[in-house]
Structures are given as structure tokens and as C-alpha cells.
């Protein structure tokens, strides 16, 4: 990563833009850097915002202001304490604080999918109450999914620069208001359409904001399992929502309580965010070390002044933390260098992301898996009611099996992904970790999802026992989350400054795939036959497999180049 020229010039590659210069050389005098530090280069790996083992998204450009005040090692001449490069951990939030943050974002992640799926079992009842045809009432689901697909682009565009907490507050408050209106307005189909659109928009922030928050406080070596923990919320939404809906509608037709319940749950999340959740965006709070707030000169202090400030100081618990749009806690050049602010929000950023081969390929691969899963999800309730004569509550309970498989797939895939990364780093010391190495796991996940998809189709077609159907549905769900966890982890490491935006692009692809699949799957089953229809869907996974193999073949080709264009 370090390239030393003849005149004691150290080139540090792949840095975020901190000035208008397109490229810079971070120069240090011979008195500020010695041969040993050049060889080991631990400080430069910390500059890359990693965990001291690799430099997968290293910083390459240093502004002139940093050149003037920074040194890569303390020297007798200047006595600078290089705390930020040598001593600062990736995050200063305590273990308990991180657990609380995770609990809040997991719960918020549950709200969006729950809001979308709690509504589906009530469609026949709503058709009767609103006095419309089945096509009209079903199209409200399509409208929800369409907005749920593009909504993350808006939230992700601002989440990486404005901050996480302000957008959490805004989106959840919108969700509360809309659900109250849905629970109280007269039964008018036009009002239902409009309010469902706003409901989808408010709930669509959860994935991109949640993943961004997770990456803020989790170093890359633990990120796979961290994202797996976070995804417990979104994964449980589609599973628990039909059961909750069945319980609410079991004894009465109180469909308004579906939205009332969602409003209450959103209110709980709103209170937790406002009262407890701190801002975590790294370009605003850094790693959370409170010493950044105490002195704007922190990072260029002499040893004595740094010692007076004390050791690493985690954020203190307080009520109503960081409410409103926050400014960076420190405006010094070292803070800006270590925690650079991305460029201003723009739709052009998403266009640039979509032109990046690894982003597009990994997103399309995951989208095909989501299309398969939603094809199963929609048809399972339909065929269990028509062919197996099951009640709404029984159908809802049937989703528990694939739901558990989704949780297992996400957790096991995340833990194994991190384990493989650590093994690679142990066996390849002082080498750059190839981010695409994580994608090896997707080969197995894609094949498992394919087996589940094809097996599910033929078990329904041949009217096999319910247990057989649930086994294949579990395989499909397991393969989906096994792969989607890896994709999200990969994108979070590939685009370190645009994590929320990258996840928003991935969400766009997969939600579009889910929308199209759920809209046409019943017609395809009638036209092709259930078995052959799902066989075709399963074979579409070969496209995903080809995409993963292409990324693995070109591993490292894009690494370090992408952040410079963001």
C-alpha cells in the first residue's frame, strides 16, 4: 500500500476527496518517518478505516492542511502524539452501547417489512369493505412495493452526509402519521392508494439506514455477523406479520387495527430513537471518542496535552442525544482526513454506482434470489388455501418454517464470512484482503436456493405432504439470506463512504425483482404449470452464479478505485 519514492515521498492511495485536487502526495520529511514504520505501515492501514489488518478501502489523498500539521510518528522535534493513527479503536462506543444501538435498529428494520406484509392477509376483507374488485385491491400491494423499491434511494442519498438519526426521526414520524390516517379515514380507495404510497416511503428507510449504522460501529472483521444480527429485524417482518394479521382478524373484521398496531409499534421506535439513539455517522462523530469534542486541535497536540485529556473516552449516555441535523464534532484537518465527508447528495451518485460492475452484478444476483423467494411467498399462501384448505392463521403459521431458515442462513453466513476473512488475513500477513473473497460463500447459497425453488414447485404440483413443501421452502429462504448477507457486507466494504447509498441501490434491484415476481407468478403457474414454472425460476439462478464467478475471477480489480469516484 505504501510506495516510497527517492525523495522520502509516501504515496497513500485511494483516499476520499478532501480538496479540489484530483490527486495529492502525502509528503513527510525524513525526520517524521523512518524505515521501520514504512515497512510495517500499521498507521496507513488505520488511515483506511480498517481494523489494522488490511487496507481494503484505504485513504489515498491528503489535503494540504494535513500535510502541514500531520506527522506519521512522534519525533523529538515536534513532539506530536499520533493518537489517531496508532491508538484509536475503530469505534469508542462501549459494548453495552453497541448492543442498545443494535436492538433499536433491528426493531426499526422489522417495521418496514411488517407494514407491507401485515396488510396482505386482509386483502379479501378489504376488497369487500372498499367495494372494489380483486385487481384494484391487489394493485395497492404493487403500489406499495414500487415505492418501497425506490424509497431507499432518497434516504440513502442523504444518510451518508446528513446523518443517520435525523432521517430515522423523519421517516418514523411519517410512518406514525400515515398509519394513524389509515386507521381512521373513511373507506375510500383513492385515500388508501395515496396513504399506502406514503407508508411505503416512510418504511423504506430501514434497510439503508440500519446497514449504515451497523457499519459505523462495526469494523470489517466483524461486519458479516453484525449485518446478520441486524437483518433479523427485516427477515422477521414478513414472517410475523401474517401471524399478527391473522390474530387481529381472527374474531372480527377490525381491519383498521392492522394500521393501528403498526402505528403503535412505530411510536415505540420513535421514542427509542429520540430518547436514546446517538448519531453514529463517522464523518460527523468520528469513532465516537469524546476527545474530538473537547479540542479542535486534538490530533496535533503535544504528548503532555493529550495526556491531560486522558485515554479514549466513549460517549456518555444522555437523554435526547444529537436531535436535529448535526455538524461534525471536530473541524480540524486530522479529523477531516480520518473521517472524510462524502460529496454532496446527488442522483448522479446513484448513476455512477450503477455503472460499477461489482455493484450492478452483485445487486442483480441478489435480486434474482429475491424474485424466487417472493414467488414462493405469494404462491404458498394461495395454494395452501386453495389446494390444502388451510385457514389464514394456519397459513401464517406456515411461514414460521422458512422464517427460521432465513434467520439461520443470515447468521451462519455472516459468521462464516467473517471467519473466512480472518483465516485469509492470518495466512496472508501484510497483504490486502480481496473483498470478493467473501462471495465464495454465495456459490453454495445460490445452489441451495435453486434446489429449494425447484423442489418447492414440484412438491406443490404433485400435492406432496405439507412437511415436504416446508422443507423446500426453508432451503429457498436459507439460500436467500445466506447470499444477501454476503452481498451487503461486500458492498459495505467496497463503498465505505457510501454504505447507505450502496445498500439503497441493492435494495432497488431486489425489490423490483420481488415486485415483478409477485405480480406475475400466479399467471405463470397457470400458463406453465407450477412445477415447470418454478424450475424455470430456479434455473435463473445460473445467471446469479455466473455473476459471482465473474466477480471472483476479477477479484481485486475494482478494489480501492471505487471510493475515489464517490
TrEMBL record:
The chain crosses the membrane at residues 99-120, 140-159, 166-187, 193-214, 226-249, 255-277, 356-376, 396-416, 437-458, 464-483, 528-552. GO terms for molecular function: amine transmembrane transporter activity. Residues 1-54 are annotated as: Disordered. Keywords: Membrane, Transmembrane, Transmembrane helix, Transport. This is Major facilitator superfamily (MFS) profile domain-containing protein. Residues 101-556 form the Major facilitator superfamily (MFS) profile domain. Residues 7-36 have a biased composition (Polar residues). It comes from the Eukaryota. Coiled coil: none annotated. It comes from Zygosaccharomyces rouxii. GO terms for cellular component: plasma membrane. Its main location: membrane.
